[in-house]
């Protein structure tokens, strides 16, 4: 005979237990919410670099407001961070213990700060997004690149790329067709050089180094071996920079280029003092007065049949100093899922890493954006090429000035191999 | 004797606050200033020096390496170049700005119409904020569309790409620094010229001295004291100058206009080598301290 009393008692006990557990759960959740709303850790600092025009910053602020409404237990604050002295800005903050919880940043910012113990890995978030299938929405070669020492050090949110614009009006006036290979490029640059007009304009700052990378990668070259050793002096690189130098020596590159900043180069191109300029997408929005006079070249075939350009996968990362990494992670995940207005309203000139955003009519209806996404993104490579990942020294190679000195040497018509050898020695000191 | 002993005992028996020379009030009044100076001068100085004895970056301090960061400097080609450029930059600026400043001061020391206007107008390069003047100069010399090349074109010269080659960039940086510096030289020399006793000139005139002789034997010796002070001050400001080369060329092209201060900045913040950057900064500091010591010594002599 069954012990009804036990059964009954057990049943009551189970119900009571379930109710109690539910009550405890609710109380716990409420308590947690109370804790969050009352604790300082719920305030998140989000530092977003100035990636676009003023409306980009306004859109970023609006998105953060939306996040705060959707997540009442977390209050994120948007801080637009200028690129000028960005490294000092972040190092000072980290050193003072006032680092942001989340920030966007350049391609190698996360790995550099991760290496110095300032950035937290996002392995858990990647695993979660992988399990939910969300990672499939990212373009190939984007999040995979952000690995270092078996950790994902950031998530990708945009692609920065350089593409060659040309002045249709100057090409038409000279009767020159847009070049499709290096020989045609050199011939077009020469034909478009007359008087105070030059075929190509470059500059001595960071954008000038991108022009070198453009030809190196377009020739199948790369700055590193597959195992991450510096490899500046390989044959493809020497060939590419000799081609670049020959353009200078032929007088086809604006002679002021070595002393130009990127703004000067843009101004020269806008004023019609140069017919071709390799720069970032969205030039037509930055110089609307010549929007109908410019177009983008198709990928240019190098002498060995390669195509390429330089691109970077921009980061969004979490910081170790964050007092509530779970909340920061929630914000990061939300941000990555709600980025579209940054382009549609903020007129961001970077390219999206998410296929769902790239398929938005903002891109499909814009011929230039479509051309870049369809033709240039698939052939784009990073400065880490041929190394498959990223490493901290990349930031120094790009930022410490060795490449700027090299492009300034070439733009002054100095000997290619001698200049490259000098840069190679410095690179080897950086990447020990 | 006993009276003295009693006085001493009485003195010792007094609270410290009442003893002459031991009144804490002056010290307590000085304390905020001392703390502030300690905070903004001494602390960064000590921390900077400690950085120069270590390797690593600003975020990840490395090991103590002693004076290794200092010993490596002479072997570094970029350091040697920056040291040379700093010296050339300082010497050319001191000589150029002094020559122009003194010349203009001699002119403005004469009775001439509109003298007050010229005195103010010629001070403008010194008064205009450096960011405004240097960026404006950059626009004027950057390429063939700049004002300078437009002017050169009128006389059939150019275009000259002043920032596009090393020699022209060095020339441009020095010239613009001279342009920014001569007003200070001018106004200081003018003050010195006006303090010269006019009787000396009258006596020289009566003795039949010519203009050059008067300048050489009266003017120059009379302003020699202030001139040395001006040279030393301008040398310090030239060695210490960051904004002129940075805003014009960022040290380029090909590092040709990189001085010690820019090099220290680049090592610290773009190369993440805080030890080497701090060592370069301290070498600059030593150079500046030697110059400052010379200045103070000169001033002490002139006071005697």
Query: Would you report the number of β strands of chain B?
Result: 2
The Cα radius of gyration of chain A reads 26 Å
- Stretches with pLDDT under 50, minimum 5 residues of chain A: 1-38
In the residues of chain A, how many domains can be counted? Answer: 2
Task: Write the CATH fold name of the largest domain in chain A.
Answer: D-Maltodextrin-Binding Protein, domain 2
CATH superfamily of the largest domain in chain A: Periplasmic binding protein-like II
CATH homologous superfamily classification of chain B: MetI-like
CATH architecture of the largest domain in chain A: 3-Layer(aba) Sandwich
The biggest chain-chain interface is: A-B, 37 and 28 residues
Fraction of residues in H or I helices of chain A = 40-55%
Given helix and strand content, the structural type of chain A is alpha/beta
The CATH C-level name of the largest domain in chain A is Alpha Beta
What CATH architecture of chain B do you see?
A: Orthogonal Bundle
> First CA to last CA of chain B: what distance?
42 Å
Summed up, the helix count of chain B is 14
Portion of residues in beta strands of chain A equals 5-15%
Strand content of chain B: under 5%
Low-confidence segments of chain B, given as residue ranges, are none
Please give the largest β-sheet of chain A.
8 strands, mixed
């Amino acid at each position: 005979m069954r012990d009804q009393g036990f059964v009954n008692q057990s049943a009551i006990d189970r119900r009571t237990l379930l109710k109690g557990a539910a009550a405890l759960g609710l109380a716990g959740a409420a308590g947690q919410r109370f804790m969050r709303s009352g604790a300082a850790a719920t305030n998140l600092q989000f530092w977003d670099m100035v990636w676009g025009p003023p409306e980009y910053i306004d859109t970023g602020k609006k998105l953060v407001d939306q996040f705060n409404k959707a997540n009442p237990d977390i209050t994120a604050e948007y801080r637009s961070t200028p690129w000028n002295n960005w490294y000092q800005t972040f190092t000072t903050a980290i050193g003072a213990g006032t680092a942001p919880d989340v920030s966007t940043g350049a391609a190698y910012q996360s790995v550099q700060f991760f290496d110095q113990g300032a950035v937290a890995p996002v392995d858990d978030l990647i695993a979660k997004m992988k399990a939910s299938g969300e990672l499939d929405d990212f373009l190939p070669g984007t999040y995979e690149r952000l690995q270092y020492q078996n950790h994902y050090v950031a998530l990708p949110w945009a692609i920065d790329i350089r593409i060659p614009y040309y002045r249709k009006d100057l090409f038409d006036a000279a009767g020159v067709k847009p070049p499709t290979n290096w020989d045609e490029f050199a011939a077009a640059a020469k034909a478009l050089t007359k008087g105070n007009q030059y075929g190509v304009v470059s500059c001595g700052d960071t954008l000038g180094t991108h022009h070198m990378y453009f030809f190196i990668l377009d020739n199948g070259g790369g700055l590193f071996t597959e195992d991450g050793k510096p490899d500046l002096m390989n044959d493809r690189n020497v060939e590419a920079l000799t081609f670049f130098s020959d353009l200078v020596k032929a007088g086809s590159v604006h002679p002021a280029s070595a002393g130009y900043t990127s703004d000067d180069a843009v101004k020269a191109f806008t004023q019609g003092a140069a017919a071709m300029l390799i720069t970032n997408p969205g030039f037509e929005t930055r110089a609307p007065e010549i929007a109908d006079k410019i177009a983008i070249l198709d990928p240019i075939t190098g002498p060995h049949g390669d195509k390429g350009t330089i691109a970077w996968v921009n980061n969004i990362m979490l910081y170790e100093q964050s007092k509530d990494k779970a909340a920061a992670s929630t914000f990061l995940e939300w941000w990555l899922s709600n980025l579209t207005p940054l382009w549609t309203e903020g007129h961001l000139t970077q390219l999206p890493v998410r296929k769902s955003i790239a398929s938005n009519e903002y891109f499909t209806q814009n011929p230039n954006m479509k051309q870049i996404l369809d033709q240039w993104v698939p052939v784009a490579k990073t400065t880490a090429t041929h190394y498959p990942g990223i490493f901290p020294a990349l930031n120094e190679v790009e930022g410490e000035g060795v490449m700027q000195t090299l492009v300034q040497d070439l733009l002054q018509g100095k000997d290619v191999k001698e200049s490259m050898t000098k840069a190679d020695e410095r690179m080897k000191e950086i990447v020990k | 004797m006993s009276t003295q002993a009693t006085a001493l005992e009485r003195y010792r028996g007094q609270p410290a606050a009442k003893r002459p020379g031991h009144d804490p009030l002056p010290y307590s009044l000085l304390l905020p200033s001392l703390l502030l100076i300690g905070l903004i001068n001494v602390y960064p100085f000590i921390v900077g020096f400690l950085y120069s004895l270590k390797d690593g970056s600003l975020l990840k301090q490395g090991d103590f390496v002693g004076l290794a960061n200092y010993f490596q400097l002479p072997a570094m080609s970029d350091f040697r170049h920056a040291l040379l450029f700093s010296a050339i930059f300082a010497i050319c600026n001191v000589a150029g700005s002094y020559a122009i400043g003194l010349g203009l001061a001699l002119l403005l020391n004469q009775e001439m119409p509109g003298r007050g206007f010229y005195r103010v107008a010629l001070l403008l390069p010194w008064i205009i904020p450096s960011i405004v003047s240097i960026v404006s100069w950059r626009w004027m010399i950057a390429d063939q569309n700049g004002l300078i090349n437009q002017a050169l074109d009128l006389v059939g010269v150019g275009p000259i790409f002043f920032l596009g080659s090393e020699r022209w960039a060095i020339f441009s940086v020095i010239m613009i620094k001279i342009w920014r510096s001569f007003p200070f030289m001018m106004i200081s020399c003018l003050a010195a010229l006006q303090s010269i006793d006019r009787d000396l000139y009258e006596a020289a005139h009566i003795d039949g001295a010519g203009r050059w002789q008067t300048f050489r034997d009266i003017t120059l010796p009379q302003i020699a004291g202030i001139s040395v002070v001006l040279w030393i001050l301008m040398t310090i400001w030239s060695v210490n100058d960051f904004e002129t080369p940075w805003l014009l060329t960022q040290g380029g092209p090909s590092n040709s206009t990189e001085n010690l201060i820019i090099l220290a900045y680049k090592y610290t913040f773009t190369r993440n080598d805080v030890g080497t950057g701090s060592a370069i900064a301290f070498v600059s500091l030593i150079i500046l301290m030697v110059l400052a010591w010379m200045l103070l010594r000169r001033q002490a002599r002139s006071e005697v």
